[in-house]
Amino acid sequence: MARSGSTQVHWVVRLNYRNRSLSFMLLFGVIALHWLDDPPGPLLWVLLVMQLLIYPHIAYQLARRASLMLRAETIVMLLDAGLFGCWVAVLGFPLWISFAMLVSVHINLVAFRGVPGLLSCMAASLTGVLVGMLLADVELRPDSSMQVTLACMVALSLYLLAFSHSAHLRSLSLRDAKEQLRNSQRQLQRKLEEINALQIQLRELAHRDPLTGLYNRRHLDAQLLDNVVNRKADSNLCLLLIDIDHFKRINDEFGHQAGDQVLARLAGLLTSHCRSSDIICRYGGEEFVVLMPEVTIGAAVERADAIRLAFTGLKMRFNNRDLAPTLSVGIAACPLHATSGDRLFECADQALYRAKAAGRNRTVLWSADRLSPTDPSTI
């Protein structure tokens, strides 16, 4: 599958193309210098130009257009090793030229494929040597001039420096990529924390009354059951069911905005008069519920009357008219009056009904034989 655009070319293909082009040009100069004393025929010159000056560009184009670019580039590197082995044999195994050519291809394959790359490169080089010995009348000429020796040193040094520089750039690229990954992970972690916080807020909002900020009926249902089930055997769980007297009249005479303010004032009053362990809920409309775990019945009644009296003492004024709302409270306790959440609420509701029937603005404790206004001093 053909590919276009340098950004789509595998980094190994691009890196090897740069290094191959540079090292092959340097080797061309070294071999040309080596041939000055004993020039070969035109065929070898043509083959040398094709191998060292044209072949790198053809190999790059083939690799970048391959569907599996890294695999294609590995084949090209092995082909480099085979061709260099062939040239080493054709040249007569000059020591420095042979060293420079074979070391460069072996370094390249070891860098990208490790020990398997070394072994496959050695096999490819040896195959190239054998092919070169079969195709040419090989004459062993290991010596080379001082100029060629120096040129080989310079060429190999430049290649190693270029290779090291490429490795350095790759290292910087990987470091930047890791830093970007760490930044992305940190951003993702922050996003996850924000999402978790939003989920907690949403869950909290799902259990909160938007007007008063108190818990709603859904939360009460869960907490009532949980508190009844997990109540200590020797402790009470008291439920206060609170209702604003004549609340509909307040809405009709003063408006719903006034009614909302009354509800909000009561919510604030309940919050200030209750313990942190108490659970305060707006049950619906003008009804509020307070769950009081681990409290005596007498203390619960005293707390309910304190709330009722404090609410009665609130000074409220709407539309230049004074408003003095009152409360009725029904109380039931677990396990004295009920042993289940539903029954506990039912008892408190019956007590509240009796408080309203008795004239409102009073606290009534549920009793199996009688429901009447309760004086805390008698508890």
Automatic annotation (TrEMBL):
- Which Pfam family, just one, is annotated for this protein? GGDEF
Which residues does UniProt call coiled coil? 174-208
Q: What is its EC number?
A: 2.7.7.65
For this protein, the record's InterPro entries field holds: Diguanylate_Cyclase (IPR050469), GGDEF_dom (IPR000160), MASE2 (IPR007894), Nucleotide_cyclase (IPR029787), Rev_trsase/Diguanyl_cyclase (IPR043128)
Q: Where is the GGDEF domain?
A: 235-368
User: What UniProt keywords are attached to this protein's entry?
Assistant: Coiled coil, Membrane, Nucleotidyltransferase, Transferase, Transmembrane, Transmembrane helix
Name of the featured protein: diguanylate cyclase
